């Protein structure tokens, strides 16, 4: 049976990824450019899922003035493109990774979404998204989209497609959580921002995850960086820890994890197996300059190195 997934990226970006020995503020820094890719969280999720053989449709907003590379990317990867074009340019995100593994981000602003554009997208998308097995909603809100409008759209989408995976931050995260999506994947800092307190220990993170579940969210996955990832649902809690990896770029690491979660759930795998695979895909992504599953054998090898613990 064909498994169909739609990814929604309301605020995509061109990701400019660079490597440098160290960043010196106020000085000229020599950067080795690794890649310039059409990206954004949902687009990255779509790339990984497409590599894994899933039928993908991509949607959201895109600036008319610099759309060409995105159009080539969607065509080259066999993705159905339902993006809504708006005046202006899609933003550029710059991420510099130092030799010590530290990353510094510079996220530029992009296009503005008018009320008419938002109404058109929200109406049209709800007409077709209900036909998909799963919808992944990822990333920030572009200028012009109000959090309250986003909550209303997410709530209506939840009625059409129960299997919504949601991954965002700041105001978009707060707004999306109000719609009680099926699965959410905040990182530790984002979870701390939501609960309004520090979460220094694993037990604190688990407690906060259950607070999200009390809001009607079935699956809560917390990315913990080098510590791995935690999954809390009605069946229990699991912690997956990857081995140490040489970091080239952290762009798309969290998105790769989301794609792994979606793939495992679509395939009917257990929570533990799905978390192991998602963590392995995320770990592999940091050791390459761009997003995607390039080698299934390497994925299997990485899965074998993931430490799993039932809590």
UniProtKB/TrEMBL annotation:
Keywords: ATP-binding, Kinase, Nucleotide-binding, Transferase
GO cellular component, one term: cytosol
Alphabetical list of CDD domains matching this protein: FruK_PfkB_like
Gene3D superfamilies: 3.40.1190.20
Pfam families (UniProt xref): PfkB
Organism domain of life: Bacteria
Catalytic activity: beta-D-fructose 1-phosphate + ATP = beta-D-fructose 1,6-bisphosphate + ADP + H(+)
Segments forming domain Carbohydrate kinase PfkB: 14-292
Entry similarity comment: Belongs to the carbohydrate kinase PfkB family.
Entry function: Catalyzes the ATP-dependent phosphorylation of fructose-l-phosphate to fructose-l,6-bisphosphate.
Protein name: Phosphofructokinase
Organism field: Providencia burhodogranariea DSM 19968
